[in-house]
Amino acid sequence: MHKVFVFGTLKQGFPNFKFNQGIRHGSDYVSKESYPLYLVGSRYSPWLVLDKGKGQPVKGQVFLVSDQVLAEMDNLERVHEPDGYRKFSIQVECVTSGKELAAIVYGKPPEMVATADIRLELAGEYLLEHADLYRSRKKLVSC
C-alpha cells in the first residue's frame, strides 16, 4: 500500500473524491515544509509547487492506496503528459498526533510556474470555496 497526501480536489468531500478509492489514514495532515499552493488556469486547478521553503505548509489528507488505485490516480493527474502533475515524496505530519510520515504527493515542478496562468495564491489550504471555482476537464470539453 502507498500513502498519498492529497491537498485539493481528491480530498474527502471535494470534486474529484469519487476518483479517490483509497482508505483515509488518520485525520488531517500538514506538509513539514512550506510549498506554494495556487489555483491555475480557467479550470482553477490546485497546484502544489515543489519549491521547498516558499509559500506555506500545506494542509491535506493522507490515503492508503493499492498499486491499482495509484495507477488510476496517475491517469487522473496525467503524470505521463508534459503538462501533467509529477509524483514526489514529501514529509507530512498528522495535525492531531504530530506523527510524521513520508507520502506521495502530486505536484508541479517550479519550472512549470513560469508559463502558468496563476489565478490565486492560497494560504496553505484548498477550501470548499476554492473547489466551487474548479471546472473538471470533462466539463470543459463537452458540448
TrEMBL record:
A GO cellular-component term linked to this record: cytosol
What Gene3D superfamilies does the record tag this protein with? Gamma-glutamyl cyclotransferase-like
Question: Per its UniProt entry, which superkingdom is the organism in?
Answer: Bacteria
A Pfam family reported for this protein in Swiss-Prot or TrEMBL: GGACT
Gene Ontology molecular function, alphabetical:
gamma-glutamylaminecyclotransferase activity
Ranges that cross the membrane: none
InterPro entries, per the entry: AIG2-like_dom (IPR009288), GGACT (IPR039126), GGCT-like (IPR013024), GGCT-like_sf (IPR036568)
Supply the SUPFAM superfamilies for this chain: Gamma-glutamyl cyclotransferase-like (SSF110857)
Provide the Gamma-glutamylcyclotransferase AIG2-like domain boundaries. Answer: 4-111
- Active site per UniProt: E77 (proton acceptor)
Question: Family per UniProt?
Answer: Belongs to the gamma-glutamylcyclotransferase family.
- Tell me the protein's name: Gamma-glutamylcyclotransferase family protein
